[in-house]
Write a structure and sequence with these properties.
By secondary structure, the protein is α/β, with parallel strands linked by helices. It is built from 15 helices and 15 strands.
Length: 424
């Protein structure tokens, strides 16, 4: 009987999602885009056989190139999400795709049980480009952030001499770095943590952009690290005050605490600099990279740190079957080459100013706030309106964006975008 009730509950949830999507499809007639039963069939299949852990905008993407995507009906859109900044270099960049083909036909995975002929080259490339002595390769952004937390704790015990099992890591409120148990434990978002306890000890949050709060908590001798995004992306592109991270760096140095910059979304040209933290001219103890590290072609992430931090981890204490595989390393080097050769950071800086200027001209009856750096931007919709509905209207007129937290919507087009595309 319990199993029967559970199955009925799942069926009811599936029906609810099904009719929500059908409602969106039925109402998709006002703009330039139109759908047929073809899209509905794809959506229905996802709803029937897949977990319901996402609520996608009702559009079924079938093809992508550069800053554009096409749905299964052949409608063309500007992609203003860029897979949450994973595709900064544009969809299907020809150089990255060529590297993928060549390396996949040679050797793609060896595990770390053996040396391979690409990993050392990649680690040297990363170290020299970003100015750190060591690299620890992983796959996804959340894995890399977890890795940074492990490194910080072990450094706390081995170097700072924090008593066993007493190490604490400080996070900023409204952070987002994934949905693992550790990420949930450091989250202030009820959607992320509710129903997933008990949580990891030693994870504490303080207000973002609050130096007084940081100074107070760093006085605790058991604090080993402070991890923060240079700009809080999923919170709605929240930008700290000028000078905030300079003071963060000073305080972390004063209290012998590691400063970890989570650059998974903000890094690699997105905000108009190679790293977003470069706007503040400070050097974190650790930098976490992901997403655009592969141009969106393959899951690649990494932690950068100097020897004092990185060498606290010994063989057998951390690892990943796929981390540092030859295919990932080759793809990442090409993806970074593209960013550097095509001057994507400079392009993002220039076009971001143009985009924010254009968005600021939109009626205040619709858009109350525009903010961002480079091509990481957000708008806030006026009271009484809903960001989801605005994103549906954008979709109907050929632009794909995604709402975040009610009245906020993030605009993150490709860093390879042209000025004409921004104007359009």
């Amino acid at each position: 009987f319990a199993n029967y009730c559970m199955m009925r509950s799942v069926l009811n949830q599936t029906r609810s999602s099904y009719f929500m999507i059908r409602s969106h499809l039925h109402n998709w007639v006002e703009g330039k885009r139109s759908l047929t039963d073809k899209s509905q069939q794809f959506m229905n299949k996802e709803l029937k056989f897949g977990a319901h852990n996402y609520n996608p905008l009702p559009v079924v993407i079938d093809k992508a190139q550069g800053p554009y995507v096409w749905d299964v009906e052949g409608n063309k859109y500007f992609d203003f999400l860029s897979s949450y900044s994973a595709c900064n270099q544009g969809h299907c960049h020809p150089e990255i795709i060529q590297t993928l083909k060549e390396q996949a036909g040679r050797v793609h995975l060896t595990s770390r049980a053996f040396f391979n002929s690409v990993l050392g080259e990649y680690e040297e490339y990363m170290s020299k480009l970003f100015g750190y002595e060591k690299v620890l390769p992983m796959n996804t952004g959340v894995e890399a952030c977890e890795t940074a937390c492990k490194l910080a704790r072990r450094w706390g015990y081995d170097v700072k001499k924090i008593p066993e099992n007493q190490a604490k890591i400080i996070f900023a409120e409204n952070n987002f770095w994934g949905r693992s148990i550790a990420a949930c434990s450091s989250s202030s978002d009820p959607d992320c943590y509710t129903g997933f306890g008990p949580f990891l000890p030693g994870m504490k949050t303080i207000p973002y952009n609050d130096i007084a709060a940081l100074k107070n908590v760093l006085k605790d001798p058991n604090v080993c690290a402070f991890m923060a995004e240079p700009i809080q992306g999923e919170a709605g592109v929240v930008i700290p005050d000028d000078g905030y991270f300079k003071k963060v760096r000073e305080l972390c140095t004063k209290y012998n605490v590691l400063f970890i910059a989570d650059e998974v979304q903000t890094g690699l040209a997105r905000t108009g600099r190679r790293l977003c933290i470069d706007h503040s001219s400070v050097h974190p103890d650790m930098v976490v990279l992901g997403k655009a590290l592969s141009g969106g072609i393959y899951p690649v992430s990494a932690v950068l740190a100097d020897d004092e931090v990185m060498l606290v981890i010994k063989p057998g204490q951390h690892g990943s079957t796929y981390g540092g595989n030859p295919l990932a390393c080759k793809i990442a080097m090409t993806a970074l080459d593209v960013i550097e050769k095509e001057k994507l950071a400079e392009n993002a800086d220039k076009l971001g100013k143009k985009l924010r200027s254009s968005l600021s001209d939109v009626s205040k009856d619709i858009v109350s706030v525009v903010r961002g750096k480079g091509l990481l931007n957000a708008i806030e919709i006026t009271e009484g309106r809903n960001a989801w509905d605005i994103c549906l209207k954008l979709r109907d007129n050929g632009v794909l964006a995604k709402p975040t937290h009610g009245r906020k919507a993030n605009y993150m087009p490709m860093c390879r975008l042209s000025k004409n595309a921004v104007v359009s």
